[in-house]
Structures are given as structure tokens and as C-alpha cells.
Amino acid sequence: MEMNDGVAERDSEKRKEVMRSDSKEGLEPGANYRAYPKPLAKYEDVVADPELFKDTLMKLHAEMGTKFMVPIIGGKGLDLHRLFVEVTSRGGIEKVIAERRWREVTAAFSFPSTATNASFVLRKYYLSLLQHYEQIYLFGSQGWNLPNVPSNTSLTTSVSSQKLVEPVKSHPEAQAALHKRRRNSGSSPTYPPVVGVIDGKFEHGYFVTVTVGSEKLKGVLYHISDQAPWPLVCADESNLRSPRQRRCRKKLSMLDPNHPKPNRSGYNFFFAEQHARLKPLHPGRDREISRIIGVRWNGLTETEKAVYQERGLKDKERYKNEMAVYNERVKAGQHTNLSPIQQLPVQPMMAGQTDTKSEKVDNDVNVTDEDCFSSDDSDSDGESSHDDSEMGRSLDRSAIESTCLAETLKEEDRFELRRREDEKLGNGA
DNA sequence: AGACAGCCGGAATGTGTCTA
DNA sequence: TAGACACATTCCGGCTGTCT
Predict the structure, then answer these.
(1) What pLDDT is recorded for position A417?
(2) What ranges does the record list as Polar residues composition bias (predicted)?
């Protein structure tokens, strides 16, 4: 087995710590609370001894009254011990899913090429056969809540235990599927508003107080990723290198619809104009269009360029003025839509899920921090490359009911109109 | 690094159907 | 009913160029 993943090991230890401390005060036994059987061995022991693993796993299923069998994949019995080791050595099922490492896990089994959906099947079996086992032996969890409890009312439980409330729904794909179904059905459940306040921070997460409707709950948001614990913060912009991180930065600038749109250069205006002209002539050949525009730009005389550069200068001036007004507003403490992080609506989320594309999917009403701040994923991020059509799709998909995003869009629309008017004025002049 | 545009293709995942 | 398979869907980075 490869427990050479020191980071994963440390993560496990930290998760255990959180679970332990949390289980003392956070996971309050309720009507749906079920205590786990005591572990019969240490995690290290079951990892080292496949027989002990099998024995303890069967006993667990017997005690919990759940069905246990060795699944057949690709004509062979699935090595559950290996599956358990592969997954837990990567930090557990949640982390594997969140970090999209199922492929790695699947690769460890050398399934025949005919088993095309092996990773999907592996995950299915892990969830049904090993998830509780993982909770007990890896995380030291002492209990869990039965499904049917509205998941959004259970942030009082630890993050890890909360994910057990509706384990299937907690996973990105399942959430995506869920959302898909919701989209198809055209209906969505309504949840009470959830507002979270960060009480404190520790190395791998935050202590939070969450108000769910009229209920005040305390809990832990645990980030198990090796990356920055709060991807939306992007505090250190010097580290913003990858496109994903760049998008975080853009996202932040997009957050506040009152933030002036950065000025565009003369070339930007030229590009937009030429693109609109060339698009019908070269459908589906955008890269070529870009290249042509570049050639054309270089072929312009200084006088011709000056026309666009003048527009660029005007836009620069516009940006300068708007920024001055904006900065004054910020100084005066007037509203920008950029809420202090402590006041952000917080979606109950599971450990390691801060970077998954689907968590907001699970939230049809409330706005998650992801909706507004995600550095990643979420096609609603308004990435330049997925502009209008993508935005429309994403709205349709997930955020149409999101107050924050809807407001943001309204503001953006207004601003866009303003921008276009400016442009017209620029053209007229 | 991000602004402008938006399609392409790979990867991951979901879903439906067929077979033993 | 589980497994295998094919197809559909979704996501996201990359690509083009130049400028600020």
C-alpha cells in the first residue's frame, strides 16, 4: 500500500482531530442519529492486514444490517481492501472525488478495457460498501445521521458527519445529476436562508456559526485540500498564475457589479468590431478570425489606428473617472455588492468540497460563497471565454434563483448598457 | 494578468439499453 | 440484477492576436 502520501496522512490526522473535537460538541444525537459500532482495529492495522480488513468490514456490515458482497467487475472479484487503501491513502472518498482522482484509483486496478465505466462502478461500490467503514476507521467518526434529514438544516454536525446525512447528494456528480433532474423537472425545493459567520480560523478550515432560518448552529468547515484553504480569498495575487487562479481574480472583480469595467485598448475596440464583421464570413473559425484581425491591425495606417486608439483613450478616461467615484464610495463605506466574507451566505458544505463545481448545484435557493466567489468551476463565473451563451446556460442551470447572482447580473446588464452608450457616444464623436 | 470572442477537443461523468 | 457497453452531457483549458 502507498501510505507514502505524507500530506494525505497528515490530512487524515487533522480530519480525525476535527472529527473528535467535533463529535464532542457538534454532533448532537437527534432522532436520526445512529452511533457507529466501535472500531475493532486501528486504521494502520486494517491497511496492513487484508484479512483483518475483510473481517472487520464484514462485521461492520453485519452490525449495521447492511448488505455485504464482493462485487464483480470485469469478471473478477473486486479487491475491496485495495480499493479502501487506494482511496484512503488519498485522503478519503470525498477528497478523491473533489480532486478528481478516481482515475488514479481506477488505474491501480488494471481493469480490462471492456470495463469502460469502471471508475463509476468503483465509486458506487465504495459508497455502498466502504463509506461507513472509512468514517469509522479512517476518521474515527462515532456516529452519523440517517438520510431524510433536510441536509441544509444539519450544519450543526461536523462537516464530515454532515456529508453522511445525504452521502450520495453530497458528491459532485450526484449533485450534478440531482440538479439535472431538477432542471428537467423544472421544480426546486425551497430552503430557509443560510447565513454563516466565521468565528475563527485554523490551519485547515474555519469555525463557523450558521444561522439557518431561526436556528443558530455552530460547526466546522474543514478544508481538506492541499491548496489554499479558502480558494475564494485569493489574498496573495502574486500567486495567481494558473488560468484557474486567474479566473479567481477575474471573479473577484466581477463580484462587485459597481466596480467599473476595466478600460479597453484601441485594439480591443478594433477586435470587437472586426470580429463582428468576420464572424458571419468565417463561421466556426474563431482562431483564424483572431489571426486575421491581428494581421489587419498591423496593416492599419497610423491614422486609421488613431481612430481606435482615441476610443481606447476615451475608455481609459472613463475608467479613471468611474474608478475615482467608485473608490470614493468605497471609502465612504457605501455599498458595493462585495460583502464582507463573514456575512456571506454560507451553504452547508462538506469537507474538501470548496473546489467542486457542483456544490452550488445543491443549492437552488440560497447563494453559496461559491456562487459569488468561486475561483473555479462554476460556469457562472462569467469567464470571458464563456460569455453570454455560457452565462445564459449557467443561469438556466443553477443560479437563476440565486439572489446574489441575479442582482449581480442586473447590475452587470445596467453597466453593460452604460458601457455601450459610452461606446456609441465614442463612435458618434 | 486580464481584456475582447467563442468554438474545439479531451476528460469526466451520467444515462439508457442489452445480455447473461 | 449486475455487468457491459454506447452514447449523451458537462466542464474546462486552449487557442488566436495585441494592448494596458
Answers:
(1) 36
(2) 334-345
Q: Is the CB of A4 under 7 A from strand C?
A: no
Q: What would the pLDDT profile of A136-145 be if each residue is shown by its tens digit?
A: 888 888 876 6
Q: Which bases in strand C are touched by protein, i.e. have an atom under 7 Å from a CB?
A: 2-7, 9-20
Q: What is the pLDDT of residues A204-237, one digit of tens each?
A: 455 556 665 655 655 555 443 333 333 333 333 3
Angle (CA) A13-A14-A15 rounded to 5° is: 90
The CA distance from A207 to A345, in Å, is 15
What is each CA distance from A307 to A33, A154, A259, A268, A296, in whole angstroms? 70, 60, 27, 12, 14
The reply to whether A378 Cβ lies less than 7 angstroms from strand C is yes
Query: Which bases on strand B have an atom closer than 7 Å to a protein beta carbon?
Result: 1-8, 11-16
Phi, psi of A147 (to 5 degrees): -60, 175
Cell numbers linked to A92 = 478519503
Q: A2-11, A27-36, A37-46: lowest mean pLDDT where? A: A2-11
Least confident segment among A65-79, A180-194, A287-301: A180-194
Average pLDDT over residues A93-107: 62
Helices (H), A126-165: 131-137, 159-165
Q: How far apart are CA A107 and CA A101, in angstroms?
A: 10
Q: How far is the CA of A128 from the C1' of C2 (A)?
A: 15
- For residue A124, CA distances in Å to A57, A70, A113, A402 come to 17, 13, 19, 31
Q: At what angle do helices A266-281 and A302-331 cross, to 10 degrees?
A: 120
DSSP A129: I
State the Cα–Cα distance between residues A23 and A155, nearest whole angstrom.
13
- Spacing of C-alpha A327 from chain mean position: 30
Question: Helices A80-88 and A50-64 sit at what angle, rounded to 10 degrees?
Answer: 90
Average pLDDT in the A306-318 region? 72
Could you check: is the Cβ of residue A307 within 7 Å of any atom of nucleic acid strand B?
Answer: no
Of residues 83 to 142 in chain A, which lie within 7 A of strand B by their beta carbon? 97, 100, 102-103, 117, 119-120, 123
Q: Which three cell numbers stand for residue A269?
A: 475596440
Asked whether residue A294's C-beta has any atom of DNA/RNA strand C within 7 A, the reply is yes
Are A220 and A18 in contact, with CB atoms under 8 Å apart?
Answer: yes
